[in-house]
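User: Run a structure prediction on this.
Assistant: Running it now.
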Amino acid sequence: MSKNIEKAQYHRIGDDVLLGMKHKEYKTSIAYAKGLFYFSVQFNLLMPIRHSFDIFISIWQNLPLMRRFIQCHAIDRYTRKDRIRQLFRDQAHRAFLYFIEKLIDNNHTDLLTGIYDTFCQMVDEKNQKRKVRVISAFPMNRSQLIRIQETMEDILKLKVIIRNEVDLVILGGFVCYTDSVRIDMSLKRDLDKLRYQILSVPCLDNKKYKG
């Protein structure tokens, strides 16, 4: 076996292992989210826990120091859990804090964002709501977002929650994303379409036009 073939096989095995790990993490995130969701429904805590999760994930994403502290295995988990209880005692429901403590116990805090996304999706589906990501080159004002929201609700026949994100790549206009629908009204799409049309025009043979 040549060294190149052997190296390629090692890379393929490594990619397969990484893919398997990601798939396992994805399934674990879904299991946590479902457990939290069904618990919340059973004890009529859906909105308090959703509100607690919103607060926690916002701080989690915007304060890297807190995130590193919670994930630091050099600090014993009892100290980390106690610190979480102190910080969020007045902001989060105690059932939600217990859930976070279990993630710390199982070393699964790195799955938090995936758990949050799945949990929110389940809550929105129960409330017959759908998240819509609106990507624009610049931040959109309230009236623009309301018009898009009304249009998407008419298309989907559901209540929608609009989230505006900025991406300069689209140049202008906007792109709407849901789980099942993609509406591209971006300037980039128009330019790509124009480019395709120009490239599709057959080249003229100058010999035909020589006098």
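Residues 103 and 109 are 5 Å apart (CA to CA).
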